[in-house]
Specification:
By secondary structure, the protein is mainly β. 6% of the residues lie in helices and 43% in strands. The strands form five sheets. Strands 1, 2, 3, 4 and 5 form a five-stranded antiparallel β-sheet that branches. It is globular, with a radius of gyration of 17 Å.
Length: 266
């Protein structure tokens, strides 16, 4: 079992390519460099190796329409690498560096910019342009509370940073405007319970935060169309767990479907 590891799923391309990718992380015998992919349209089949990244643990990922990015980690705490989401072979390549090296950070993405927040007790939020393969991350602002092992999710307007440890376990929800490159996070509310190392994923309207230390099976949801709101209970995982990653910005798929329909009408 490899956990935690950076996960990026092809969001805009998932309508056409339906590929999901996982990057470097902790393996049973040490830190791994493997980048694997799956076909998301099937319910059977193992992951296939795509290539290699720089070996590191506790990195995070974010994704745009063409490229997926792995940022931070240990020991390569400042490194940002990318892959082309349309390809199933090839190693990662270097994009640049984070403004501050850190691990156990979290990534989320809007339509144009990707963000890396927190990690190693830091409050820094960096941004990258998702359409480019060169250039260092720049500072967007800061979290209200610096922490690590946060869950992230994002909609078309807001990105959210939920839970995490300072190292004390928190239930904080903070949000940013994910259409801009400047501005600090704002306190948006709280989760239903304390969480460190939860996992996050996104739909078109709701973001979901699941699990977290200690032995928490709860799944919360938040309304991503507004910044200020508390997490509400959706249900529970089949088994309590923490320090796992899973992020899929499905609203991007929705935008592509709308775009395709508009083209067909022209």
């Amino acid at each position: 079992m490899i956990r935690p590891l950076a996960g990026i799923l092809s969001s805009m391309h998932s309508v056409i390519l339906s590929l999901g990718f996982w990057g470097p992380g902790n393996g049973q015998t040490g830190v791994t460099s493997a980048v694997d992919y799956i076909n998301k349209t099937t319910t059977t089949g193992n992951a296939t190796n795509r290539g290699s990244a720089t070996a590191r643990a506790y990195s995070s990922g974010c994704t745009g329409s063409t490229y997926g990015f792995f940022g931070g980690g240990s020991p390569s705490a400042t490194l940002i690498e990318y892959i082309n989401l349309s390809l199933t072979t090839g190693n990662t390549a270097s994009k640049g560096t984070l403004s501050v090296g850190r691990n156990q950070l979290v990534g989320c993405a809007g339509a144009v910019y990707g963000y890396f927040g927190g990690g190693s007790g830091s409050s820094v939020i960096d941004y990258i342009t998702l359409a480019t393969t060169t250039g260092n991350a720049l500072s967007k602002g800061t979290l209200v509370v610096g922490r690590q092992n946060i869950a992230g999710c994002a909609g078309s307007t807001y990105g959210f940073f939920c839970g995490g440890g300072t190292p004390s376990v928190t239930k904080i929800i903070e949000y940013i405007d994910d259409t801009t490159t400047s501005g600090n996070a704002t306190n948006g509310g709280t989760l239903t319970s304390l969480r460190q190392g939860p996992g996050g994923c996104s739909g078109t309207t709701y973001g979901f935060i699941a699990g977290g230390y200690t032995t928490n099976p709860a799944i919360d949801y938040i309304d991503m169309t507004v910044g200020t709101n508390n997490g509400l209970s959706k249900g529970s995982l089949t088994a309590a767990r923490s320090f796992f990653k899973d992020a899929l910005e499905l609203y991007m798929v929705f935008l592509v479907v709308v775009y395709i329909l508009l083209i067909l009408q022209l």
